[in-house]
């Protein structure tokens, strides 16, 4: 048996790497314990909208480059990508575009200068190269307001020298046009001016009309008005406080690299808004309209009502949705992906057919988080996270009297007793292997496991060292093989086990809330209506083993095989550990491979403990303490008699 010596390792490292996204690693090669620690106090960030009146300036593009990009629940409008604004920006920049009426408008181009008969001799004063600079600089402004301001700076009123005093229409001031070249202000004629900038007389008249008596140019007013409804900042803050008060649910599969938070789906946004207004009425504060609540919920938060799905294949989806011209580039990768998927399933069928007195095939997986008390009854109170790790043994063949799986072993604990990283998962697997070892006293047992690619639980150095240790430690187990299901196609018999448990939980909730974690254990035992009931083992903190320490003592090389080839753990499909190959393990990076490759975990001369000197030690010395806000909510429920006194003692002791 493993040693029971204890070590104070109750600190929870914050390990977050997603096994889902194809551009992220699905393996832990770090020396830290891959356990999960939720951040319940995520800071809120707010977004801003681009102006539709002018293209973004260089200054705004360079601001806040060190700040993380804000994520929100829904997409927000991006005026810079609106078709009408794209056309406007192209027009203001002098580029060709297709109008909203499908008319092809050519790009602006500099016209010929004035003729030689011009009395100002403009062409002699300003060279053609300078005209090109003026033309390009004008359209580089890209803003109608800036271009009008430039035109205004080039104009000067010229009063007529002679006026008829009795004229019905007195002569109006004329315009003198100037260009600034090499810091010299040069007067030009109107024809030279409009041909150089390729503008019309209408633009000049508009600038004149928008210039007031003090010489200031009026700002563009199209699309602007001041009659928008003002938002009460106090009400907005109350809405944010209300949304922040909703307890978050830990995401099961994508918890590592997602900023998205999850809340129970027991209420809709409309229900939350109604609850908020009821709370405001009770506190004699201002209520809000639904549009304001849902806008705040969608724009200032990144919250979802459902936990992410683990079996959605991004590779298949991206190929199906790819444009036809890009599908050809993806086809080879996609075809290999489908081949691996089919071969993996064939491999599982073969392992099932080989199940006998000497071969065991099992699938293990961690079920979605269960909350206690039941979320639908105490929506706004923080709850205890309960975890159920299942190991499902496969039968050789499914018949009408015999399901595809046989015995199911459930390991149940809550967050006060442990985390859900490789230490906890590996401890449960080690206990299962101990049962297998005692159930087959004649020896020569070969164990095959299947699981998904979850980094912090199934595919890391600690699990590899545990398998290697177990093959040596248990005399009746001759080999352990772990085969990883292909991402996005991890549907398996364990899903049916989880479905039965969730169905039984919902049936029990019809009769009232689930008040304590121990009730979940009872429900899991009764979930299976035919055949052997699920075996449930309720775990305490002293059950879990320190696999991080085992890894440090067992080996140090996990990345270079005996042929000096580097191993990328992301590519691993199969791991195998054999009793007579101490400190070695074999692997395949594809189900197409016929031969295993080998890694020596002690490939250098380094003084380390022998296999018989290594013992497994306990991971935790005491239970975990809940966060203060969670303890307060749970104790308040007990104090208000919302939890029966029979279960209240459990919460008061937290």
Tally of helical runs: 20
- Number of DSSP E strands: 17
Mean pLDDT: 84
Note the main sheet: 10 strands, mixed
Measured as a percent range, the helix fraction is: 25-40%
How big a fraction of the residues is strand?
5-15%
Radius of gyration from the alpha-carbon trace, in angstroms: 36 Å
Low-confidence stretches: 1-66
Alpha-beta content class: alpha+beta
Shape: elongated
**What is the terminal-to-terminal distance?**
31 Å
Explain what the structure shows.
- This is DUF7869 domain-containing protein.
- It comes from Loxostege sticticalis (Beet webworm moth).
- It is a single chain.
- Among the domains are: 88 residues, no CATH class; 270 residues, no CATH class.
- 34% of the residues lie in helices and 14% in strands.
- The protein is built from 20 helices and 17 strands.
- Strands 8, 9, 10, 11, 12, 13, 14, 15, 16 and 17 form a 10-stranded mixed β-sheet that branches.
- Strand 15 and strand 16 form a beta hairpin.
- The longest helix has 30 residues.
- The N terminus is likely disordered.
């Amino acid at each position: 048996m493993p040693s029971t010596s204890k070590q104070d390792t109750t600190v929870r490292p914050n390990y977050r790497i997603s096994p889902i996204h194809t551009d992220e690693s699905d393996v832990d090669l770090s020396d830290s314990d891959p356990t999960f620690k939720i951040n319940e106090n995520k800071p809120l960030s707010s977004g801003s909208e681009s102006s539709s009146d002018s293209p973004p300036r260089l200054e705004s593009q360079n601001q806040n480059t060190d700040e993380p990009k804000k994520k929100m629940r829904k997409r927000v409008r991006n005026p810079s990508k609106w078709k009408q604004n794209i056309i406007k920006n192209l027009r203001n920049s002098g580029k060709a575009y297709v109008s909203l009426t499908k008319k092809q408008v050519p790009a602006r181009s500099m016209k010929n200068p004035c003729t030689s008969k011009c009395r100002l001799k403009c062409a002699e004063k300003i060279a053609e190269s300078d005209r090109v600079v003026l033309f390009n600089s004008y359209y580089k402004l890209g803003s109608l307001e800036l271009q009008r301001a430039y035109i205004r700076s080039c104009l000067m009123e010229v009063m007529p020298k002679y006026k008829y005093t009795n004229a019905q229409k007195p002569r109006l001031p004329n315009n003198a046009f100037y260009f600034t070249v090499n810091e010299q202000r040069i007067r030009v004629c109107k024809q030279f001016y409009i041909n150089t900038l390729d503008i019309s007389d209408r633009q000049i008249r508009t600038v004149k009309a928008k210039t007031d008596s003090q010489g200031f140019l009026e700002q563009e007013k199209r699309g602007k008005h001041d009659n928008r409804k003002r938002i009460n900042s106090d009400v907005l803050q109350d809405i944010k406080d209300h949304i922040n008060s909703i307890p978050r649910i830990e995401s099961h599969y994508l918890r590592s690299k997602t900023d998205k938070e999850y809340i129970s789906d027991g209420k809709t946004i409309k229900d939350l808004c109604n609850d908020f207004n009821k709370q405001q009425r009770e506190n004699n504060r201002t209520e809000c309209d639904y549009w304001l609540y849902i806008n705040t919920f969608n724009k200032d938060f990144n919250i979802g009502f459902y936990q992410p799905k683990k079996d959605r294949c991004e590779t298949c989806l991206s190929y199906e949705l790819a444009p036809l011209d890009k599908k050809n580039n993806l086809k080879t990768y996609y075809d290999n992906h489908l081949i691996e998927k089919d071969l993996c399933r064939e491999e599982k069928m073969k392992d099932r057919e080989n199940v006998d007195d000497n071969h065991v095939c099992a699938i293990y997986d961690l079920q979605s988080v269960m909350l206690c008390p039941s979320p639908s009854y105490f929506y706004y109170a923080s709850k205890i996270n309960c975890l159920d790790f299942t190991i499902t043994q496969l039968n050789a063949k499914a018949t009408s009297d015999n399901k595809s799986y046989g015995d199911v072993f459930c390991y149940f604990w809550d967050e006060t007793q442990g985390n859900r990283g490789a230490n906890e998962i590996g401890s449960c697997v080690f206990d299962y292997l101990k049962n297998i070892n005692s159930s087959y006293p004649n020896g020569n047992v070969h164990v095959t496991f299947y699981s998904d690619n979850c980094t912090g639980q199934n595919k890391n150095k600690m699990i590899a060292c545990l398998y290697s240790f177990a093959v040596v430690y248990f005399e009746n187990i001759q080999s352990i093989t772990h085969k990883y299901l292909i991402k996005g196609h991890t549907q398996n018999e364990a899903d049916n086990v989880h479905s039965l448990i969730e169905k039984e939980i919902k049936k029990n909730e019809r009769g009232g809330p689930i008040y304590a974690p121990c009730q979940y254990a009872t429900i899991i035992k009764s979930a299976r209506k035919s055949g052997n009931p699920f075996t449930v083992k309720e775990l305490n903190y002293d059950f879990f083993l320190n696999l991080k320490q085992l890894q440090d003592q067992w080996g140090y090389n996990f990345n270079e095989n005996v042929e000096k080839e580097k191993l990328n753990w992301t590519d691993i499909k199969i791991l195998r550990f054999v009793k007579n190959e101490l400190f070695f393990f074999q692997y395949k990076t594809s189900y197409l491979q016929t031969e295993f490759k080998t890694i020596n975990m002690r490939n250098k001369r380094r003084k380390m403990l022998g296999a018989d000197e290594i013992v497994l030690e306990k991971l935790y010395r005491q239970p975990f303490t809940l966060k203060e806000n969670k303890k307060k909510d749970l104790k308040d429920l007990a104090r208000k008699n919302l939890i029966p006194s029979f279960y209240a003692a459990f919460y008061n002791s937290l």
